[in-house]
Design a protein that fits this description.
Blueprint: E1 2-6, H1 10-21, E2 25-30, E3 41-45, E4 51-55, E5 61-62, H2 66-74, H3 79-82, E6 83-86, E7 89-91, E8 97-99, H4 111-118, H5 125-140, H6 151-154, H7 160-175, H8 184-196, E9 208-211, H9 215-218, H10 220-230, E10 235-239, E11 242-249, E12 252-259, E13 262-268, E14 270-273, H11 277-294, H12 299-311, E15 315-324, E16 334-336, E17 350-353, H13 354-357, E18 367-375, H14 379-393, E19 400-412, E20 424-426, E21 429-431, H15 444-460
Parallel strand pairs: 1-2, 1-14, 2-10, 14-21
Antiparallel strand pairs: 3-4, 5-9, 6-9, 7-8, 11-12, 12-13, 15-18, 15-19, 16-17, 17-18, 20-21
Helix pairs in contact: 1-10, 1-15, 2-15, 11-12
Length: 462
């Protein structure tokens, strides 16, 4: 069976690994010159004229991302070297906030989280017990709630300090949607896996996993090396090939690509669209138009229905501001930052110390990454506000901006009752990506799960 995968991001490469391992003939088309998708490497110019490889956005994984970690392990990634594991901890620069004590760092879930809550700096006992009580209620309910609830409504009874220092930053970082607009049900799925789930290997479910290498190296490149070593005869990657059309063909599909200005049709039995929801919707709409000419009964309606659901997703932006300062160093590899009543004056929720993440890379010393989830405003305005926030909250004045990356369509707005497009588009045509229907928000784990699910469906002949 010949399978085409359009897109070489984490979802596409997950599907490629699974299909090739099952003995299928796999071809991956990627419009960019290198794999990675949204989570990919980015060269950043430093003040001394040298270049440091970072990412087009700073990411966090957690130990509960079992499919992602398992797949990385499978293709030969050395997880302990690639990811810095931190016990559940969201400390602020002043030392307050949730921090798992060292003596509980290796406790199994949920005991490690309970220890972190009971010892949270700056919280009183009413704050701590309220959060533990809420967690137990969520567990008793099976981490299910009314689909129309927002996170703000779900947590309205929690003390203000718990909402401001834990719930709201967790919500906006995990769902990239403000608590008063975010789906409580999806938030509960994340909390279930992080607090009460199982981790992978030596990683606890609630561990925060910070990449020490760029995200292209963390999985897509390793997957390519694994495929070349184990399945070279039935795997091909075509970079610089833009998929510009789909067409039903015999019992499969034609993928129309363009490379260096030259168009070409390719015939396949099965196709996986592992792109963002927008490009996927355009390709499926194109296929619907072509299917009318081919007189495929009912197919155009099916295709247009899927494309309509994908096109309705509302997207939100994530901004990462990379800055450098001579001798700039945080107390920890990652710190939470406080919101301002006027959020435009303090937009970043988290800051990462690249020097501590890459201690053997001298060029990374003094480089900080500030992350703004659900970001709004211009690149220049956000960059200026972050530098001011660094001076006020970190006492780091005089930071030099290196590069500010704004991913305008980084994720979909994870709102209550959101209808996401299905994995199955039409016979022989599948979707993979963090926007596809599933329990997780737009995360690497959601993308990997969708890629594996599409591959499993193809292999099983569904």
């Amino acid at each position: 069976m010949k399978v085409a995968i359009v897109g070489a991001g984490w979802a596409g490469m997950a599907a490629a690994v699974e299909c090739a391992a099952a003995g299928l003939d796999v071809t991956v088309f990627e419009a960019a010159p290198a794999p990675g998708g949204r989570a990919r490497a980015l060269p950043v110019l430093l003040p001394d004229g040298t270049t440091l490889t970072l990412d087009n956005g700073q990411h966090i994984l957690i130990g509960a991302y079992r499919d992602t970690l398992g797949l990385m392990d499978r293709v030969g990634v050395k997880l302990q070297d690639t990811l810095l594991a931190l016990p559940l901890s969201l400390p602020y620069p002043d030392g307050t906030g949730l921090q798992t004590p060292a003596w509980a760092g290796r406790w199994p879930a949920p005991l490690d989280a309970v220890a972190a809550i009971l010892t949270a700096h700056g919280w009183n006992w009413a704050d701590r017990l309220a959060l533990i009580g809420a967690s137990l209620r969520w567990r008793r309910s099976g981490f299910e709630c009314h689909p129309a609830l927002t996170v703000a409504q779900l947590c309205a009874d929690l003390p203000a300090r718990v909402r401001e220092e834990l719930i709201e930053p967790l919500c906006v970082s995990a769902l990239n949607t403000a608590a008063d607009q975010a789906s409580a049900q999806v938030f509960l799925h994340v909390m279930r896996d992080a607090l009460f789930g199982q981790g992978h290997g030596r990683f606890g479910a609630s561990h925060l996993l910070l990449p020490r290498v760029d995200l292209s190296t963390a999985f897509p490149k390793a997957a390519l090396q694994w495929l070349a070593a184990h399945h070279a005869s039935r795997f091909r990657l075509h970079t610089g090939h833009h998929a510009e059309g789909l067409e039903p063909h015999d019992r499969g599909w034609l993928v129309h690509t363009r490379h260096q200005g030259l168009p070409r049709p390719w015939a396949f039995d099965q196709v996986v669209l592992a792109t963002g929801s927008g490009p996927a919707a355009q390709l499926v709409t194109d296929a619907a138009g072509r299917s009318l000419a081919c007189a495929r009964s009912g197919l155009a309606t099916q295709l247009n229905g899927w494309a309509g659901a994908a096109a309705k997703l509302r997207h939100t932006a994530i901004t990462t501001v990379y800055a450098w300062g001579l001798g700039a160093r945080l107390q920890r590899p990652m710190l939470a930052l406080r919101a301002n009543p006027d959020a435009q004056q303090a937009p970043a929720q988290f800051v990462f110390d690249r020097g501590q993440l890459q201690p053997h890379e001298i060029r990374a010393q003094g480089v900080l990454a500030f992350v703004i989830s659900d970001s709004q405003g211009s690149r220049e305005a956000l960059q200026g506000q972050v530098l001011q926030q660094a001076a006020q909250q970190l006492n780091l004045g005089g930071l030099q901006p290196l590069q500010t990356v704004v991913e305008k369509r980084a994720t979909f707005a994870c709102t209550p009752g959101l209808v996401r497009p299905d994995r199955r588009i039409a016979p022989g045509l599948w979707a993979a990506g963090d926007h596809v229907q599933g329990p997780y928000p737009a995360t690497l784990e959601g993308a990997v799960r969708s890629g594996l699910a599409a591959a499993h469906a193809i292999v099983q002949g569904h």
